[in-house]
Design goal:
By secondary structure, the protein is mostly helical. It is built from five helices and no strands. The radius of gyration is 31 Å and the shape is elongated.
Length: 177
């Protein structure tokens, strides 16, 4: 007994052999529709601009064609990105604390070695220069980290604002249905 898909395949094969121009046109049409569907399929990554709207004409088409699926995926991508940034903010603070502890332990070990082997100990001028370098490095690292944290905080704020806008868009899509 022949299944529906087998019968359809056999009939399409007959049609292709009888009408080659028609089959080429159909193939081109199907490929074109497939390419459009693939190009406009809602992305899993964040594809919105500063105004929280689709970033390109393809994304705008995707939002129009797929509606709530597009906005749900964008909301999910936004949540993932926002949570990643929030984790980074927490991780940076934890790493800084561990780094400070590590430096204290290293300095204590060095001082112990200098006490045991005074010939290895740096001079007063070398110690002072090292302290100045350490202070300068710490100031520079703190400034850089503060700037990066400000950028992360702005991005988190923007993502939070966009999540609200995307929820509004999602609500508009469901009202149309």
């Amino acid at each position: 007994m022949e299944t529906n898909s087998e019968r359809l395949g056999r009939e399409l094969g007959l049609m292709v052999r009888r009408h080659p121009r028609f089959s080429k046109a159909c193939m081109a049409f199907v490929l074109g529709i497939s390419a459009l569907a693939w190009a406009t399929y809602p992305p899993e990554t964040l594809r919105i601009n500063d105004a929280c709207m689709p970033i390109s004409s393809l994304q705008t088409a995707s939002a129009s064609i797929y509606g709530d699926r597009f906005w749900r995926r964008q909301i999910q991508a936004s949540i993932v990105e926002r949570e990643r940034l929030e984790r980074e903010l927490l991780a940076v603070a934890a790493i800084a604390a561990l780094q400070g502890e590590g430096e204290l332990k290293v300095n204590a070990l060095l001082e112990e070695q200098y006490r045991l082997y005074p010939q290895l100990a740096p001079t007063r001028a070398e110690r002072y220069a090292s302290q100045l370098r350490t202070q300068a490095d710490a100031i520079e690292a703190a400034e850089l980290q503060a700037n990066v944290n400000v950028l992360r905080a702005r991005e988190i704020e923007w993502l939070t604002r966009c999540e609200g806008e995307m929820l509004r868009q999602l609500g508009n899509q469901t009202k149309r249905l």
